[in-house]
Amino acid sequence: MDSSQLMAQVLQEVQRIPVERLPEVYRLIHAFRLQTETETHSPNSIMQFAGSWSNLSDETYADLITDIETRRQQAFSERRMHETRFD
Description:
By secondary structure, the chain is mainly α.
């Protein structure tokens, strides 16, 4: 069975699930996808960035950290709103 046939079968099964059970299915699929994404990252691919920030100025580094914190807060607040829509 090729991937397009398998995808079609999966979608057919999902369409048969009662609407009130879809939040559970979504959480399961989402968690599975996140897990597979983290498994595919090898240490070598991540380590190529080691030391990348070592030559940043203190001001640039502080700006970067502030930007990361802001983006994380935005991402998690959107995620919380998205997750509560299914409950």
